[in-house]
Fold this protein.
Amino acid sequence: MKKRYIRPARSRNAYIITNTLLSIGVLLALLVIGLLAAKNAQADEAKPVSSENTFIMGAGAGFGPRYSGSDQNMTGPLLLFDYSTPGGFFASTMRGLGYGSTIGRFNYSAALGYRGGREEKNESDFGFSSGSTRLRGMGDIKGSASAILSLGYTPLEWLNLSVTADLALSQRNNGNAFHFGVSSPFYSGASDKLTLAATVSVGDSKYMQTYYGVTGLQHRNSGYRAFKPKSGLYEVNASLSWEHRFDTHWALQTMVGATRLQGDAAKSPLTSRRLSPNGAMYVTYTY
């Protein structure tokens, strides 16, 4: 069997566990505050984006690592379908199937989505599954249906805050993830819009074990050293998006960014690269 480099074990800092508990507490607090504010804001009414149904179609390409922690990159097709109604219902390849609305400075949504799997081969279905032959012996991770619950708050016109829970409904052992985001549409012109965004992600113990852990059986089959990560912060992502509108129907969407693994995700024997670039470019048509 081919020998693999074994990274020396590192001591765990207590602040990682503390920050994890604080992050989950912040998520719950924001959800409660948002619901109370929505209930008590009698003067505010829901503000639909449009008085008519909106249908957006798009196609392009995306770029990123083969799987989280991989030092191999891949490029694949991106197909966008997004249908929404003034009442708040939406069906989208990016947002899932659900309902969302805005009350005052708060916005919320609840959707049924799909979390892609991971295979032990060079999978090319970008956005729905990933993988590499370097994962042989690790077994496949099946994709799972998930509940996507989001709450956003806009304290200033140029600042948006959000919390999102990605909860596995099928394949429950895939675990749950929580994302804390901030974005700023710092420039908006007649035809162009630039947005900076950053996201911090936390995973529970099942999520971390599924995507970054190595069980005893996987160790024997793959050669990677056994590793059992704990729940906590696992990645930070930053991106810059540019939207250019040719007219009321056609637009070009571009995104460039980078993701850095943190905590036990960075220490995983499956992680060959902590910092990974990612990007996307696609054209959309709005009916």
Remarks:
- The radius of gyration is 20 Å.
- The helical segments are 14-40, 205-212, 216-222, 263-267.
